[in-house]
Amino acid sequence: MTVGGQAWWLTPVTLALWEAKVGGTPEVRSSRPLLPLPQLRGTLYNTGRHVSFLPAPRPVVNVSGGPLLYSHRLSELRLLFGARDGAGSEHQINHQGFSAEVQLIHFNQELYGNFSAASRSPNGLAILSLFVNVAGSSNPFLSRLLNRDTITRISYKNDAYFLQDLSLELLFPESFGFITYQGSLSTPPCSETVTWILIDRALNITSLQMHSLRLLSQNPPSQIFQSLSGNGRPLQPLAHRALRGNRDPRHPERRCRGPNYRLHVDGAPHGR
Ligand SMILES: *[C@@H]1O[C@H](CO)[C@@H](O)[C@H](O)[C@H]1NC(C)=O
Ligand SMILES: *[C@@H]1O[C@H](CO)[C@@H](O)[C@H](O)[C@H]1NC(C)=O
Ligand SMILES: *[C@@H]1O[C@H](CO)[C@@H](O)[C@H](O)[C@H]1NC(C)=O
């Protein structure tokens, strides 16, 4: 592994679980977030690079705990996916890719007034990543976004569709661990201000839903169809960044000992 000075904070990386430092790290155990979160509404949007869901300013959903020193507010849900199954996620685990990756992008609401100020500043952003496989079942939250009636509204670049009554807690697995590292935004300006938290249980969507994603175009309807798939940033060297997690790969059935170290996803209908 090379230590490239510039590569220090770049995202994404391939994460080898055996590299995670397990001795003496806090336990990072989590279960489905405190129920219920307020129901979200917002805009599903084809940016020409990926599928984006931009929640309305209210209600506020925030994440805290785990490796985070501050409460971070959700500002975007982003969905990246590949042209074929098993590829398309930005991160890899043990050199294995996934068909898609859902990124919940948050900014530090305690220190900064908005996303753009936070993205340029220390401890600015926190991104929770969930990996997605193609299988016979489907995650109920993703099903709301990917049902035919909804996803076909954003077939082309800049198409947007308003959604409401979304239950974000349904996105999360019943229980999960996570891996965390310090990295960057994977899209310009690639700011190196992100605490990444990768959830270690994959979600499922059906092959039909995956297919409907690949039918989205990077271009407006007046231009040639070019699939939105495969838009993740190429892998970056991990260098000597510390990974932390709660899995000891030599004993995957065992959880690390230590004080509880929980991740909280929380919300308030009338937030600040
Ligand atoms: C974001 O916050 C910065 C610093 O507080 C401020 O200068 C800027 O105008 C804000 N931007 C928006 C879009 O509100
Ligand atoms: C995803 O699909 C796999 C294979 O069918 C299954 O074993 C697993 O339990 C599913 N995961 C969830 C969260 O439903
Ligand atoms: C989340 O944000 C809301 C509104 O700012 C606040 O009332 C609540 O305490 C926050 N929760 C956490 C866990 O930070």
Automatic annotation (TrEMBL):
Residue span, Alpha-carbonic anhydrase domain: 1-247
Keywords for this protein: Signal
One GO term (biological process): one-carbon metabolic process
UniProt feature, compositional bias: Basic and acidic residues: 263-272
PROSITE patterns, sorted: ALPHA_CA_2 (PS51144)
Pfam families: Carb_anhydrase
InterPro entries, sorted: CA_dom, CA_dom_sf, Carbonic_anhydrase_a-class
GO cellular component: basolateral plasma membrane
An annotated Gene Ontology molecular function: zinc ion binding
Disordered: annotated segments: 244-272
Signal peptide from the UniProt entry: 1-24
The UniProt record lists the keyword Cell inner membrane: no
Recorded family membership: Belongs to the alpha-carbonic anhydrase family.
This protein's name: Carbonic anhydrase-related protein 11
Gene name linked to the record: CA11
